[in-house]
Specification:
- The complex is a heterodimer of chains A (about 110) and B (about 120).
- Chain A is an all-beta fold and about 110 residues long.
- Chain A contains no helices and 12 strands.
- Helices cover about 0% and strands about 50% of the residues of chain A.
- In chain A, the strands form 3 sheets. In chain A, strands 2, 5, 6, 10, 11 and 12 form a 6-stranded mixed sheet that branches. A 4-stranded antiparallel sheet of chain A has the order 3-9-8-7, with no helix packed on it.
- In chain A, strand 5 and strand 6 form a beta hairpin.
- Chain A is globular and about 45 Å long.
- By secondary structure, chain B is mainly beta.
- Chain B is built from no helices and 11 strands.
- In chain B, the strands form 2 sheets. In chain B, strands 2, 4, 5, 6, 9, 10 and 11 form a 7-stranded mixed sheet that branches.
- In chain B, strand 9 and strand 10 form a beta hairpin.
- The chains are: A mainly beta (about 110), B mainly beta (about 120).
- At the A-B interface, strand 6 and strand 11 of A face strand 4, strand 5, strand 9 and strand 10 of B.
């Protein structure tokens, strides 16, 4: 079945460092891909998404490109801030399905 | 934007008792709601999908008699953990989707259940 594998955390970086959180997926069809973020004490929020190959999703300085050839959707940010500390979830949804399949989440901590 | 309110955020209960978790869509009508469970350091696992006014569809391996889901209105879904045991301790999170927005999933803030 469909699945999402993402980089294990926790990831600790200094402010202004470059961030990459790896995500790969397995799917039978052509899914949409998502990154969700969960700040402490809050629900998951959609950070960005891409619906087809080579699409790039971007939001709040974060980017991820839908790479069909490597079945990947890595999350990147050029310069992280303390306020980016949160748990990040990679996810996919098949077009024919209603449910979202999540990766295990990566906890990111940014040091001032 | 769309907001989903989930209560309680934390609950501790004794073994053998039942616990109800509520999920409300505050500013939109949620035609479909999803309930997830998350074990430490693991993925959110979908437990069930419920459409307003109909019975929930449970994922394989989820006991429907133990995890009762009710979606009686377009703004409220409840999950009741019946006869809770320590192994039911987990983080439960709901998600709601409005009509006409196939990828507009809004999540609640989750409920940490501890069964002692």
């Amino acid at each position: 079945g469909d699945s999402v594998t993402q980089m294990e955390g926790p990831v600790t970086l200094s402010e202004e460092a470059f961030l990459t959180i790896n995500c790969t997926y397995t799917a039978t069809g052509y899914p949409s891909l998502f990154w969700y973020v969960q700040y402490p004490g809050e629900g998951l929020q959609l950070l960005l998404k891409a619906t087809k190959a080579d699409d790039k999703g971007s939001n709040k300085g974060f980017e991820a490109t839908y790479r069909k050839e490597t079945t990947s959707f890595h999350l990147e940010k050029g310069s992280v801030q303390v306020s980016d500390s949160a748990v990040y979830f990679c996810a996919l949804k098949e077009s024919s399905a209603s449910k979202i399949i999540f990766g295990s989440g990566t906890r990111l901590s940014i040091r001032p | 934007g769309a907001v989903v309110s989930q209560h309680p955020s934390r609950v501790i209960c004794k073994s053998g008792t039942s616990v109800k978790i509520e999920c409300r869509s505050l500013d939109f009508q949620a035609t479909t709601m999803f309930w997830y469970r998350q074990f430490p350091k693991q993925s959110l696992m979908l437990m069930a999908t419920s459409n307003e006014g109909s019975k929930a569809t449970y994922e394989q391996g989820v006991e429907k008699d133990k995890f009762l889901i009710n979606h009686a209105s377009l703004t409220l879904s409840t999950l009741t953990v019946t006869s809770a045991h320590p192994e039911d301790s987990s983080f439960y999170i709901c998600s709601a989707r409005g009509q006409g927005d196939p990828e507009g999933y809004t999540f609640g803030s989750g409920t940490r259940l501890t069964v002692v």
